[in-house]
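Lab notebook page, bench 4
Experiment: in silico fold of construct C2
Operator: M.H.
Input chain length: 132 residues
Purpose: comparison with the prior construct
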Amino acid sequence: MHAMMLVNLPVADVERSRQFFADLGYAFDDRFSGEKSVTLALGENQFAMLVERELFDSFHPLETADATKVKECVVCLTVDSRDAVDALVNRALAAGGTEGDAEDHGSMYGRSYNDLDGHSWQIFWMDDNSPG
């Protein structure tokens, strides 16, 4: 149905955010990046645009949520294994992120972290071979 997904998230400091996600092993797409934004490549045609708060505020007349105080969304991303969940979340914590929740349902395992601006990222693995 959709050819591309771009999630826009406000950030206080674009370069600080770029370094944080680079430390986690992410790449960036310069086609959609500029002085006041950086685009994080999440997968094929899946992106998170990290936009300087002032520019983000100009997109819509409503007040921008402060993700350190209220939850505006949760970005959920799958990985290939339980170990990959732990590795990515542990890198986020080492880079300055904060621990979120964790769930283990056997065939589904996930942990989350909050980035430097408080945005919640849930990283999870599902066993595709599990019955049901």
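Observations: Helices lie at 14-23, 53-57, 82-94. The mean pLDDT is 94.
Next step: discuss at group meeting.
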